[in-house]
Amino acid sequence: MDVLISPSELADRLTDVRLLDVRWTVMAPDGRPAYLAGHLPGAVFVDLDADLADHSATGRGRHPLPTPQALAASARRWGLNDGDAVVVYDDWNGQAAARAWWLLRAAGVSNVRILDGGWAAWQRSGGPVATEEVVPAAGDITITSLHGLAAVDADGVAAQAQSPDNLVFDARAAARYRGDEEPLDPRAGHIPGAVSAPTAENLTADGTFKPVAELRERFEKLGAGAAPVTVYCGSGVTATHQIAALAIAGYDAALYPGSWSEWSSDPQRPVATGPSPA
């Protein structure tokens, strides 16, 4: 199943898909004002913090995964039904929308794609824009688990990062990986053994994903293909963008949902600094 859809292809199928607007960034987590200022016609606003995370869970990072039951309730509120084709987008180069993509794929929704380039690409294409809030009739989608895509816990990623038979990618900016700065979490650095692979390097200058060949070359140089890959970031959001990029390049990867926010909060977990994995 394709990961991406272009603005031109979406324009031809606008009434045939369910559209989810997942506007959120670390610095501006409330995306609703931007949604109300303009969005794709028919798009339903998705609140990443409320709908795509479970903040009642403690000790599992800043954005623990929602339960299947909670995700099902949200997805029905978005109007999703079994068998629907879904397109997700944001205004952050797909980095928030990828969280919705990953969760829906993990929940068994096979036909879900990310709008390549997101809101900015849609605007550049001259596509129609709406401003009214969309409140759809409740859907009846069935979600019973999140086992459709691989995920690992802290013990699992610790073992993988130290194993020559596995590969762990750190999708955060290189400065955070090295430990030069840490604006959000308790300790600076990275999981010992993890390889720096910043999510931003998946993108072209206009915020679209790089071509398949370029992504494949990038990940091959990092070791993908030689060993199973697990990805983490700060809180399990932008790591899903990395997993989407890997999927575009033809590689499967697991998510460590707790990511650095969980790992760095546990004083018993070791931390490495500097540009090398060890």
CATH topology of the largest domain: Oxidized Rhodanese, domain 1
User: Between the first and last Cα atoms, what is the distance in angstroms?
Assistant: 36 Å
> What percent of residues adopt helix (DSSP H or I)?
25-40%
Order of helices and strands: EHEHEHHEHEHHEHEHEHEH
Percent of residues in beta strands? Answer: 5-15%
CA gyration radius, whole angstroms: 18 Å
Structural class: alpha/beta
CATH superfamily of the largest domain: Rhodanese-like domain
What profile does the largest beta sheet have? Answer: 5 strands, parallel
Shape: globular
Query: Unreliable stretches, pLDDT < 50, 5 or more residues?
Result: none
Q: In total, how many domains does the architecture comprise?
A: 2
Major sheet: order of its strands?
1-5-4-2-3
CATH architecture identity of the largest domain: 3-Layer(aba) Sandwich
Number of strands: 9
Output mean pLDDT.
97
Number of helices: 11
CATH class of the largest domain: Alpha Beta
Keywords: Repeat, Transferase
InterPro entries: Rhodanese-like_dom, Rhodanese-like_dom_sf, Thiosulphate_STrfase_CS, TST/MPST-like
GO molecular function, one term: thiosulfate-cyanide sulfurtransferase activity
Protein name: Sulfurtransferase
Structural write-up:
It is a single chain. The chain is α/β, with parallel strands linked by helices. It has two domains: 4-125, 3-Layer(aba) Sandwich (Oxidized Rhodanese, domain 1), CATH 3.40.250; 154-265, Rhodanese-like domain (Oxidized Rhodanese, domain 1). The chain has eleven helices and nine strands. The mean pLDDT is 97. Helix 5 (97-106) packs across helix 10 (238-249). The chain starts with a strand and ends in a 15-residue tail after the last helix. The strands form two sheets. Strands 1-5-4-2-3 form a five-stranded parallel β-sheet. InterPro entries: Rhodanese-like_dom, Rhodanese-like_dom_sf, Thiosulphate_STrfase_CS, TST/MPST-like. Residues 13-131, 162-272 form the Rhodanese domain. Keywords: Repeat, Transferase. This is Sulfurtransferase.
